[in-house]
Amino acid sequence: MELRSAFRVNGFVVLLGWLALTLLFGAAAALAFVSFSQHDGGPAVLVGAIAATAVVVALALAATGLIIVNPNEAKVVTFFGRYIGSVSAPGFFSVVPLSDRKSISLRVRNFETQKLKVNDADGNPVEIAAVVVYKVVDSFKAAFAVDDYEEYVETQSEAAVRHLATTHPYDAHDDERTSLRDGAEVAEELTVELRERTLTAGIEVIEARITHLAYAPEIAQAMLVRQQAAQVVAARTHIVEGAVSMVGLALDQLTAAGTVELDEERKATMVSNLLVVLCSDRAVQPVVNTGSLYS
């Protein structure tokens, strides 16, 4: 069964009908009273009683079908256990009398999952949480496909976050893997997975994004040292690459200008001194050599 629009009429039209029936009821009651007074009973009394009863029953039945639908809300209408449609247009309406109506909010909602402790793809325990933004797009599925669509979304969100954490490392040390710290890619993957998981409940996931990501307390300090070491190595590698390029440039320019002629040993000495100066992590003390390398 799929979502469909329920039969409805304007509620104010029904109110006008109420007014007309009330006037008819009043006229019938007055006629019955006059007839009873003049003729002490008779057919007019019976007609008046039947009309009054019919009007009361009609008014009572019509009252059970009146509904008010607020903006961004849907009313799911069932008649003795049978789904007859939904009303999502805001306004005052009258639907099938004696029907049951369930309100479903179509507003955009968001919630944040609990901080979950899971092992990432490398087996490291991490703490992770995410915020999920969603809304109901199919009121029939939200009402009847699952017991509680809000609880269903929360449970599926936690399951999706756990699955995401176990399939990606906290921090990738190469370019071939996506880490949990790659915000845009991970958010898109989480959103796609949640859309597939919540489709059964008539839910559209607008966005899902990680809001908390950290190593578990028992390994946080060790991982911090590891990250610092990795950053130092990366920085040193970049410095050495730049220093080698600068040394080569200096030798090429000295040779091209003919400023000084250097043999291989003097070039090696110059390269060693320049690398020490460029790669050192602290200020170096210059040494003036007034002699010769061969003396």
From TrEMBL:
SMART domains: PHB. Keywords: Membrane, Transmembrane, Transmembrane helix. Residues 64-232 form the Band domain. Pfam families: Band_7 (PF01145). The chain crosses the membrane at residues 12-34, 46-68, 80-99. InterPro entries: Band_7, Band_7/SPFH_dom_sf. PANTHER family: BAND 7 DOMAIN-CONTAINING PROTEIN, MEMBRANE PROTEIN-RELATED. This is Band 7 domain-containing protein.
